[in-house]
From TrEMBL:
This is Hydroxymethylpyrimidine transporter CytX. It is found in: Membrane. The keyword Electron transport does not apply. The keyword S-adenosyl-L-methionine does not apply. It is a multi-pass membrane protein. Belongs to the purine-cytosine permease (2.A.39) family. It comes from Actinocorallia longicatena.
């Protein structure tokens, strides 16, 4: 790599500690390339099954056509939520977890910060697992440990120069990804897709072979992937040159490419045989190995984003820690975890993420845009705001009651709560949308009451 293509450093890079100002150097196109690349993920291929089998019985519950509709609805809604989360970072120049000082208070912000660190470590680990599994299938075998280590090293290197890596994505990677997407669409259509309106599972009904009581669960599964980036969006948009660029890039570029990628993943599921696996259709078409290699290498930007945001989140707890030291330590940690963990409970993981961060975004949107008008106290001594915690917990409870997910004893507890309340979920109920609205409404009411009391 020549000196002209090395990631930028100095005043054009992210600050090393929380006490240094964030440079405003990312244009709309820089951010669009970044979010567009995050929207195209191997998770869209390996995880597309979660949209078709939202109750995790091991067999598809809705048709591929219905899955595409659910995925589009969930992704568009999730993209808009991601755009809302992007604006406060661009307006204040603060990273995501520091913004929560203004929402909950400095000390209370430590609670969602710890949760965010935990979920980002999980996402970063899952990304390395997916990269390793895809590389092993691409190269026809080989030691899994080698693929995990290579992905971990590449992730850590990108994380040390985060803004330079974002610009690198725009210059070189995005074009290759778009060409690969077009190539696979053309090849899959030439292969001849089966009837997408037929439910491949035994329990579908109604138009498109979909059990509509499961439609919103499938939508929530797709939305949860977008929502997973909500608690980190400001880590990148704090470097945006304008709030409009931050909102447009996060909501538009991400949603468009995720829809394209997930639809491609659902097409691949329609073509996959029992022996070929989820990646088989990609590798069996003409030049499939070459273009699939682009996806495998590009996937490192997902793990890079997770590791960098984990480091920045930890700085909310320890502002003077050097993010480079944190990045190296976190890269080592997720690499070790990826050698140990398996992808056995992906859907349950998504459900828990959505139930935590969707209502938190509802509280943030109501308080930041309606009450505070974009002005928050994010100082280290910002006073605690228990009312906003109460609003968050109200939205969280609504999500769990509507969709307890599939997480063992946790699910059993919320099923007991359903029974105790005599609650029966209706087909039109979306856990994500209703928890977002309840949390936002509660935050608005509590904010007005507190303001009148003051």
């Amino acid at each position: 790599m020549s000196s002209s293509t090395l990631p930028s450093a100095g005043r054009h890079e992210a600050p090393l500690t929380l006490e240094e100002p964030a440079p405003r150097v990312l244009s709309f196109w820089d951010q669009s390339a970044f979010w567009a690349n995050l929207g195209v993920s191997l998770f869209a291929f390996s995880g597309a099954y979660t949209v078709l089998a939202p109750n995790v019985d091991g067999l598809p519950q809705i048709s591929i056509a219905a899955g595409i509709v659910a995925m589009i609805v969930g992704t568009v809604l999730g993209g808009l939520m991601l755009g809302l989360a992007a604006v406060p970072g661009a307006k204040t120049g603060k990273p995501a977890m520091v913004l929560l000082r203004g929402l909950f208070g400095a000390r209370l912000s430590y609670v969602p910060t710890v949760l965010n660190v935990a979920q980002l470590i999980g996402w970063g680990t899952f990304e390395l697992i997916v990269i390793a599994d895809a590389a092993k299938e691409l190269f026809g075998g080989g030691p899994r440990v080698l693929y995990v280590l290579a992905a971990g090293v590449l992730t850590t290197v990108l994380t040390i120069w985060p803004l330079g890596s974002v610009r690198l994505l725009r210059r070189f990677v995005t074009a290759g990804v778009l060409v690969a997407l077009v190539w696979f669409y053309v090849q899959f259509v030439r292969e001849g897709l089966p009837d997408l309106t037929v439910n491949p599972g035994p329990e579908g009904s109604g138009p498109f072979g979909v059990d509509w009581s499961l439609f919103w669960i499938a939508t929530d599964a797709a939305l949860a992937v977008s929502i997973s980036w909500v608690p980190v969006a400001a880590d990148y948009t704090r470097h945006s040159r304008s709030t409009g660029a931050a909102f447009g890039a996060a909501s538009g570029a991400y949603a468009i490419t995720q829809i394209i990628a997930y639809t491609l993943g659902l097409f691949a599921l329609a073509l996959a045989s029992g022996e070929s696996g989820v990646y088989g259709p990609f590798l069996q078409v003409t030049l499939g190995g070459l273009f699939f290699f682009v996806f495998v290498v590009r996937e490192a930007d997902q793990s890079f984003a997770n590791v960098y945001s984990t480091a920045v989140s930890i700085q909310n707890l320890f502002p003077r820690l050097d993010r480079r030291v944190l990045s190296i330590g976190l890269g080592t940690l997720i690499t070790g975890l990826a050698l140990w963990w398996k992808m056995d409970d992906y859907f349950g993981f998504l459900g828990l993420i959505g139930s935590v961060f969707v209502p938190m975004l509802g509280v943030l949107a109501a308080d930041f845009f309606l009450r505070a008008k974009g002005e928050w106290n994010t100082d280290p001594d910002a006073p605690s705001r228990w009312g906003m915690i109460a609003a968050w917990l109200a939205g969280f409870a609504v999500y769990q009651i509507i969709n307890p997910g599939d997480a063992g004893w946790w699910t059993s507890f919320w099923v007991d709560v359903q029974d105790g309340l005599g609650f029966t979920k209706q087909a039109w109920m979306s856990a994500s949308l209703l928890s977002f609205l309840v949390a936002g409404l509660a935050a608005w009411i509590i904010g007005r009451v507190m303001r009148k009391s003051a």
